[in-house]
Automatic annotation (TrEMBL):
Required co-factors: pyridoxal 5'-phosphate
E.C. number(s) listed in UniProt: 2.6.1.-
Coiled-coil region list: 350-377
Enzyme class: transferase
NCBIfam families (alphabetical): PRK09257.1
Alphabetical list of PROSITE patterns matching this protein: AA_TRANSFER_CLASS_1
Keywords: Aminotransferase, Coiled coil, Pyridoxal phosphate, Transferase
Subunit structure: Homodimer.
Signal sequence range: none
Identification of the protein by name: Aminotransferase
Any one Gene Ontology cellular component term annotated for this protein: cytosol
Family the UniProt entry places it in: Belongs to the class-I pyridoxal-phosphate-dependent aminotransferase family.
Amino acid sequence: MKKQPAPYLWGVQAAFLEKPLPLHGDSSINAKIFHSSNPRSRSCSMLFDHIQAAPADPILGLGEAFKAETRAEKVNLGIGVYKDAQGQTPILKSVKEAETRLLAQENTKNYLTIDGVAAYNAATQELLFGAGHEIIAQKRAKTAQSLGGTGALRVAAEFIKRQTNAKNVWISAPTWPNHNAIFNAVGMNIRDYRYYDKQAHGLDWAGLLEDLSQAQAGDVVLLHGCCHNPTGIDPTPEQWDALAKMSAEKGWLPLFDFAYQGFANGLEEDAYGLRAFAKHNPELLVASSYSKNFGMYNERVGAFTIVAADEATANRAFSQVKTIIRTLYSNPASHGGATIATVLQDAQLKAQWIAELDEMRARIKTMRQKFVDTLKECGATQDFDFIVQQNGMFSFSGLTAEQVDRLKDEFAIYAVRSGRINVAGITDSNIRYLCESIVKVL
């Protein structure tokens, strides 16, 4: 007798049969559990039944809630994207021109190499360290195009876990929530170091030094290159120098999350901390992103850069980085990286991009001051002047979680419950409503 095919695991095939199949030739066993078109009618439990719904992402979940908001007057200060004076997230003119050129010249959709667009990676190193830096000249840096800054951080975490003896990663408190999630995912021990002084609305320098003095040789210390997320507070150049020397003396492995270069004071100025560490530390890692300073959020353009003591070590380490990338996403997409490389390699386009970046930074600084002034005009007695001293898109407003909840529930104003607000989301058309609402919940 011809052997009957075994029914599919989920009963897809057997559900269409007129008669139940005997299993393994035993006619006494009825295969009705595979015969039902309703999976829930089976006696066996489903493999996914035990899975619990994950909580909404604390930041991206806000965007979903905001889209579902039906009130006409609403303000989104949650997700960290730049918005212009009209409340739009525009495509930069320099980016549009680069894309036009690419479309005219592009002649293939072939795979990229594992590390992505070579010109993009070279331009990234020059932005990070400066053209002609000895790290570049000595070929001690290797860069791989990544899927945004998040992708770069995950590659970094995997590399640290698989290729070093590091067990601990020191992360500022507070920080971007995904930092903890990424390093938890690879099984590293997370240690917090103090960063924000709630009373002074500034950097807790003494607490930071005390906590990081406990970091051991080989521990990873994660640092925000500029525009600290969520506080907007950065170390001074003198403090960066002190941290860089402390790192070299202690033997940390520095990991820079550099997502906002150009949004604090300028491209060169914002790289001060990273370059101070590069001066004193022969090894370091950088996860950088062009989402913000190029406005290319949905192109997922980031980079992971590893710096080693010499070229041979860098090459060996980078071979392991590429192995990791191969198992995660194989290779990156071309369009975003090629667009940025086109801008950064062309003097005219690069100058245009820098001018557009300067304009974005200036608008954010202007809105910081207007925000503080309008709060005063609306009757706020609480001092918000500290907001003007913060850098980048974000401000740690000082609002409590309860006040943030009231803003959402009563006024359709969405912000992160930590009190972080995206200053770039403030416009001339919503600032009065925003400030009047804030005063009502203070």
